[in-house]
Automatic annotation (TrEMBL):
Residue runs in coiled coils: none
Name the UniProt record assigns to this protein: Uncharacterized protein
Gene Ontology CC terms: ARC complex
First and last residue of the signal peptide: none
One GO BP annotation of this record: regulatory ncRNA-mediated gene silencing
Taxonomic lineage from the root: Eukaryota, Fungi, Dikarya, Basidiomycota, Agaricomycotina
Length: 647
């Protein structure tokens, strides 16, 4: 038995709905003044204009612009001019960037919900597939598709096939057997027999260049079991990558935008430096918007990844810009003055030339003529040439072995110098950059260090001030005064970039190195203490290295900052914590490299020195800070690393 209950709920809803609306019809409101309402029976369709105006805006027959849809589709074309898309592709000036096209309606690209009961790995794979499927990628010339594939490989969403070679094939190649020793029928039979009857064939697929396997020698395998092992290893590596991405997406993206892009060679195309951050920002926002990985820890990591992407959008293009601007004009001029200082490492040992080939020639009674013998003979007076060196009427006593370089720029008639495409551009010099300067007379290259350093601070040029002179100062003090005066002049012209050490930027083995051309005192580490529990007496602590002339302490490449002089226009583009790698050269004062005073002589003059110093004025805080200050320049530039660099 059932009892009917009045449907009060529906009536209550209707009543509330009526209260929410301000207007109810009928009665209909009056028509506003100046407005004409056309009845539907009188409406006439005007269609789309056939010809566009100068603004290329599509309009209807009344001249009213059409309204574009928020979400773009592949079938959306201009009704007035269907060939407009192709026309605009030819006109690069009017074409939008690909990320601007993606931004239109991007917030509506929701292809979920993604079932949280499905494994995170499967959800991530599905999201990556949907991300690519439901959007139009730009032309292949933009390299966006390649970058997307590269990211999927780095994140474990796409695998790479290993490359192998059968041991039998390797032996055949090593035997250097020519093709004409086998007829075509024999070659066909060998290709059919390869793999054996009933054996599963595994084709040797080529890797996607320039991925991890590009340029590497194929793995030598004995049989199909070895091939299966290679495939299983590649599959396991792919799974490890995707697990690492899910564990910490921010770290995976940070590695991709730094060391991965560098080692894979993507940083050498400027379009990659601009496109990659845009691409990853779209993907990360897609994951967050569609709640693909709703775990709080993972979502927090994805939001941190957006901060890294924002930094990459600014710093990646800057790495290319700085690579083209460094070394700046001042560093180039300093290298022109003193020569390259970073061509040899301290651990480098010159090798003796191999004389085996020369010995074989002598055994065959073939006379060996060395280039230096020819030059010496050409410079020798008449009659003193060796019999085995041909003489030339052009050879004179003033022969310059480098004079042939000038002949490229001289005409045969009047000898006037001509500029040719082969002539090297003029190098910057200290004279052309600074004018008459005493820099080469007061300073000389000191410590030469190869390392990677971070930008710690940037100080733009200040008004140059001459140092105060001291009446009755000795020769050494005048040398310090002259050197400081030159340095103050440089401070008024150039920015000062403080560089901090970046130890272990690519692993513990990549430490700063000192070049063989380096001159100056280096800080030495203290002696190792004996192991705990041993009976050996503890060694006396190593004495602190004494300060050199001018208060200069020994250089510690692992801990000391250096101050780099740089053109203001270049320094203004720098970003803090960006890494610069190269050869740094210290501008040491000539008095810094003076010969040390013998110990006995120093002890005898100790009382006199103390008495002399007691009569001097005490140094101010600013003077004390300057006594150990030395500037540096960049002799050779090797790399620029973003501040978020991670291996």
């Amino acid at each position: 038995m059932s009892t009917q209950v009045p449907d009060l709920k529906e009536s209550e809803i209707a009543s509330e709905t009526v209260k929410q609306f301000k207007h109810r019809f009928p009665p209909f409101p009056s028509v506003p003044e100046g407005v004409i309402i056309v009845p539907f029976k009188d409406f006439k369709e005007n269609g789309i204009q056939i010809f566009e105006g100068e603004d290329e805006v599509e309009r209807d027959g009344l001249g009213i612009p059409t309204v574009p849809l928020r979400v773009k589709h592949d079938t959306d074309i201009s009704k007035t001019n269907p060939n407009r898309t192709k026309k605009r592709e030819m006109r690069g000036t009017f074409r939008k960037e690909w990320w601007q096209d993606w931004e239109e309606g991007e917030d509506l690209r929701n292809h979920g919900p993604y079932d949280v009961n499905v494994a995170p790995i499967d959800r991530l794979h599905q999201a990556a597939s949907d991300f690519q499927r439901y959007r139009k990628f730009p032309p292949i010339s933009t390299n966006v598709q390649v970058l997307w594939d590269q990211f999927r490989i780095c994140a474990g969403l796409l695998g790479t096939t290993p490359v192998w070679q059968k041991a039998s094939e390797k032996e055949a190649e090593d035997g250097a057997v020519s093709d004409d020793e086998f007829d075509d029928e024999d070659s066909k039979s060998r290709s059919v027999r390869q793999g054996g009857p009933g054996e599963r064939r595994h084709p040797k697929l080529r890797p996607r260049a320039p991925y991890d396997l590009y340029g590497k020698a194929p793995t030598i395998v004995e049989d199909n079991e070895d091939i299966v092992k290679l495939l299983d290893t590649a599959r396991a590596t792919k799974e490890d990558k995707v697990v690492a991405f899910l564990d910490n997406p921010a770290r995976a993206i940070q590695v991709f935008l730094s060391s991965y892009m560098t080692y894979q060679g993507f940083v050498y195309a400027d379009r990659n430096l601009v496109s990659t951050p845009h691409l990853l920002r779209f993907f990360v926002n897609y994951l967050l918007r569609n709640k693909v990985l709703p775990d709080k820890t993972t979502e927090r990591s994805l939001k941190n990844a957006l901060e890294i992407i924002d930094a990459a959008a600014k710093q990646l293009p800057l790495t290319s810009e700085l690579a083209k601007k460094l070394p700046d004009h001042f560093s180039v001029a300093a290298q022109s003055c003193w020569g390259a200082r970073g061509d040899t490492l301290d651990a480098w040992i010159p090798e003796e030339p191999d004389n085996a080939f020369e010995s074989i020639l002598k055994e065959e009674n073939i006379e060996v003529i060395k280039p230096e013998d020819v030059l010496l003979s050409a410079n020798a007076p008449d009659g003193e040439n060796d019999s085995h060196v041909p003489t030339s009427d052009a050879a004179t006593d003033t022969f310059d072995p480098c004079s042939f370089a000038d002949s490229w720029d001289q005409t045969a008639d009047n000898g006037a110098l001509l500029e040719t495409e082969w002539a090297a551009p003029p190098r910057e010099s200290l004279l052309s950059l600074l004018g008459p300067t005493a820099l080469p007379l007061t300073h000389t290259p000191g410590i030469v260090e190869w390392s990677v350093r971070r930008i710690k601070s940037v100080v733009l040029p200040v008004e140059a001030k001459s140092p105060n002179t001291v009446a009755g100062a000795g020769a050494g003090e005048w040398e310090e005064w002259a050197a400081e005066a030159v340095e103050r002049e440089l401070e008024g012209r150039f920015a000062r970039v403080v560089m901090a050490p970046w130890v272990g930027w690519d692993g513990p083995e990549n430490l700063p190195r000192i070049m063989r051309s380096s001159v100056g005192a280096l800080a030495t580490p203290a002696s190792d203490t004996p192991e705990a529990g041993s009976d050996a007496a503890s060694p006396a602590p190593a004495p602190a290295p004494s300060l050199g002339p001018g208060g200069l302490k020994p250089h510690d490449p692992l801990a000391d900052d250096i101050t780099l002089l740089m053109e203001p226009a270049v320094a203004e583009t720098l970003v803090l914590n960006i890494g610069l790698g190269g050869t740094w050269v210290q501008l040491a004062r000539l008095c810094d490299l003076a010969a040390p005073v013998p110990i006995a002589e120093a002890e005898g003059a100790e009382a006199h020195t103390q008495q002399k110093n007691s009569k001097k004025k005490s140094l101010t805080k600013a003077q004390k800070a300057r006594r150990g200050l030395r500037y540096w320049y960049l002799d050779d530039h090797m790399m620029v690393l973003p501040s978020y660099w991670l291996v």
